[in-house]
C-alpha cells in the first residue's frame, strides 16, 4: 500500500517526524544523523564554554537542553540549535565580571526578548534580506567554518594530516557506496579505531578539549537581587544576545529552506528559540542559537530532515558525555576537522564566484555580497555581516533607483508641461527642484505625476518647494495624474512640512 512517506521519497517532499517514526529506514537515518551531529557538537560546545568563561559542562548541558526543547518548539525541522560562539562572545563579559548567576538572568532575559520579538512579528523582516546578502552569508559561514578548523592543524603531529586526508577520502567515497549510514559517522569510527589500534597517543582528541561531565544537569535558580540595578547590568547583554541569536537562527532557517525546498515558520522559530534559551538558563546553560555548521552536517551530509534528528542530537550529546565520556574522549580531532572541512566546501556557493557569473551579475550585487563576506569574516560575527550587507544593499538600491527618475518638458502656448517618470522618494526627490525652468516657463505649468508614485515626506516637501517657487513668480501650477494613494498621502502632508 502506498503511504505518504513513500510519496515523500518519490516526489522529494520532506517527511514529517510521524512519518519517519513509521518507517525504519527513515528513522535509522534520523537517529544516525543525530549521532553524527552530537559528535560534532561536543568539541564546539566545550570550546564555546571557554569563550564564554564558564565550565565546559555548562556548554554541553546547554546544547542538550537547547536541542531537545527546540525540537518541540521550533519552526524549522532538522535545524540544529545549541550553544553558539556568536552568543558566547556577547555574554562573555557577564560571566567574567558578575558571575554565573548573572549569566543565568541574562540568558533568561534574552529568551524573553526573543519571545517578544516573535509576538511583534520581527521574523517577518527576513523578507527584506536580499539574495546577494544571503549568498554572502553562506560564503562567509563556509569560510568561518574552515578557519575554525585551522588551529587544529597547527603545531600538531604529522599523523594528524594523514588522518584528515584519510577522513576526507572516506567522506567523498562512502556516499557512492551507500547512503544508509552517514559518511561522517563511518569516518569518525574508522579514524578513532585507527588511532587506538596504532597507538597514536600524540594525536589530539576530544578529551584534550576539556573535562566531560559525569552527572545530569540540575535545575538552578539564580541568586541575584531582582532590582533595577540588576536589570541595568544584564539588559544590554541580553538584548545583544537575543538579536544575534535570532538573526543567525532565522538566516540558517532560510538557508535550510532553500536546500530542502521547504518552508519553515520563522515566527515560531523565534518564539521557540526564546523558550529554549529560557529552559537552558534554568539548567545552568549558556545561551545559544542555530548552529550553522552542525545544521549543514545534519541536512546536507547526513540527510536529516525531521525534528527527530534535532531531538536526538541533544539526547546523544547527553548520553555520549555522561555515559560514554571515556570513549568519546578518544575521538581524534582530526576526524571532526575532516567533517567540518567537507561541510565548509559543500556550503560555499561556488557558482557565485565563477567568472561567468561575476560578468553577468550587476556590480552592486557583487559589492553587497563582498561586504557581507568581508564584514562577517573580519568580525567573526554573522549578525554584523548581515546587517552591514543589508545596509549596503539599501544604499546601492536607493542610489540606483534615484537615477531612474527623469523629468521631461514641453511647451504649448502659454503652458509648460512637465512629465515625471520613475519613483519619487528621498533619494530621487532631493534634486527634483533643480529640474524645472522657473524663469523661462510661461504663466501656466502642469506637472504630470501619472507615471510616478509619491512615497515619502521628502517628495511632498520637494513638490511644495516647486509650487512655492513658481507662485513667487506669479505662475500657476497644477499637479495632475497622481494615483489615489499618492494624492491621499500628498494631501495629508502638503503645506504642513515647513520650508523645503
UniProtKB/TrEMBL annotation:
Coiled-coil annotated residue ranges, if any: none
Transmembrane segments: 31-52, 58-74, 102-126, 133-150, 156-174, 186-207, 227-250, 271-293, 313-346, 367-398
The keyword Transmembrane helix appears for this protein: yes
UniProt membrane topology term: Multi-pass membrane protein
Chief place where the protein resides: membrane
Subcellular location: Membrane
Superkingdom of this protein's organism: Bacteria
Domain called STAS: residue spans: 405-484
CDD domains: STAS_SulP_like_sulfate_transporter (cd07042)
Keywords: Membrane, Transmembrane, Transmembrane helix
InterPro entries per record: Membrane-Transporter-like, SLC26A/SulP_dom, STAS_dom, STAS_dom_sf
Gene3D superfamilies: STAS domain
Keyword Transmembrane annotated: yes
PANTHER family hit by this protein: SULFATE TRANSPORTER YBAR-RELATED
Name of this chain's protein: SulP family inorganic anion transporter
Amino acid at each position: 500500500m502506498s503511504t505518504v512517506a513513500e510519496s515523500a521519497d518519490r516526489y522529494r517532499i520532506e517527511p514529517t517526524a510521524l512519518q519517519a517514526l513509521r518507517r525504519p529506514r527513515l528513522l535509522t537515518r534520523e537517529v544516525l544523523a543525530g549521532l553524527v551531529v552530537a559528535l560534532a557538537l561536543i568539541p564546539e560546545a566545550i570550546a564555546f564554554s571557554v569563550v564564554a568563561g564558564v565550565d565546559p559542562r555548562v556548554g554541553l548541558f546547554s546544547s542538550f537542553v537547547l536541542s531537545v526543547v527546540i525540537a518541540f518548539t521550533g519552526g524549522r525541522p532538522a535545524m540544529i540549535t545549541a550553544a553558539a560562539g556568536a552568543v558566547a562572545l556577547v555574554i562573555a563579559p557577564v560571566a567574567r565580571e558578575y558571575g554565573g548567576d548573572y549569566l543565568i538572568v541574562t540568558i533568561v532575559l534574552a529568551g524573553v526578548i526573543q519571545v517578544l520579538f516573535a509576538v511583534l512579528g520581527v521574523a517577518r523582516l527576513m523578507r527584506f534580506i536580499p539574495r546577494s546578502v544571503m549568498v554572502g552569508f553562506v560564503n562567509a559561514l563556509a569560510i568561518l567554518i574552515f578557519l575554525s578548523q585551522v588551529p587544529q592543524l597547527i603545531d600538531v603531529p604529522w599523523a594528524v594530516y594523514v588522518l584528515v586526508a584519510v577522513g576526507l577520502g572516506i567522506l567523498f567515497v562512502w556516499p557512492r557506496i551507500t547512503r544508509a549510514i552517514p559518511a561522517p559517522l563511518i569516518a569518525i569510527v574508522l579514524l578513532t579505531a585507527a588511532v587506538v589500534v596504532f597507538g597514536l597517543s600524540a594525536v589530539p582528541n576530544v578529551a584534550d578539549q576539556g573535562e566531560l561531565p559525569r552527572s545530569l544537569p540540575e535545575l538552578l535558580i539564580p541568586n541575584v537581587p531582582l532590582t533595577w540595578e540588576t536589570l541595568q547590568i544584564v539588559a544590554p547583554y541580553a538584548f545583544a544576545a537575543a538579536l544575534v541569536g535570532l538573526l543567525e537562527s532565522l538566516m540558517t532557517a532560510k538557508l535550510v529552506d532553500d536546500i530542502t525546498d521547504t518552508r519553515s515558520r520563522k515566527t515560531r522559530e523565534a518564539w521557540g528559540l526564546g523558550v529554549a534559551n529560557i529552559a537552558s538558563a534554568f539548567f545552568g546553560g549558556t545561551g545559544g542559537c542555530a548552529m550553522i555548521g552542525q545544521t549543514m552536517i545534519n541536512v546536507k551530509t547526513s540527510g536529516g530532515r525531521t525534528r527527530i534528528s534535532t531531538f536526538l542530537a541533544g539526547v546523544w550529546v547527553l548520553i555520549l558525555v555522561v555515559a560514554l565520556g571515556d570513549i568519546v574522549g578518544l575521538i581524534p580531532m582530526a576526524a571532526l576537522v575532516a567533517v567540518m572541512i567537507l561541510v565548509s566546501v559543500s556550503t560555499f556557493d561556488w557558482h557565485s564566484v565563477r567568472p561567468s557569473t561575476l560578468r553577468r551579475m550587476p556590480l552592486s550585487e557583487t559589492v553587497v555580497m563582498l561586504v557581507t563576506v568581508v564584514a562577517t569574516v573580519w568580525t567573526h560575527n554573522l549578525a554584523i555581516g548581515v546587517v552591514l550587507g543589508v545596509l549596503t544593499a539599501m544604499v546601492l538600491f536607493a542610489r540606483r533607483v534615484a537615477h531612474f527618475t527623469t523629468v521631461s518638458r514641453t511647451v504649448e502656448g502659454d503652458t509648460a508641461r512637465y512629465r515625471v517618470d520613475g519613483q519619487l522618494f528621498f533619494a530621487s526627490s532631493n534634486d527634483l527642484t533643480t529640474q524645472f525652468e522657473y524663469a523661462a516657463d510661461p504663466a501656466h505649468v502642469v506637472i504630470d505625476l501619472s507615471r510616478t508614485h509619491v512615497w515619502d515626506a521628502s517628495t511632498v516637501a520637494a513638490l511644495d518647494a516647486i509650487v512655492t517657487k513658481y507662485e513667487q513668480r506669479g505662475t500657476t501650477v497644477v499637479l495632475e495624474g497622481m494615483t489615489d494613494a499618492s494624492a491621499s498621502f500628498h494631501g495629508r502632508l502638503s503645506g504642513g512640512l515647513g520650508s523645503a
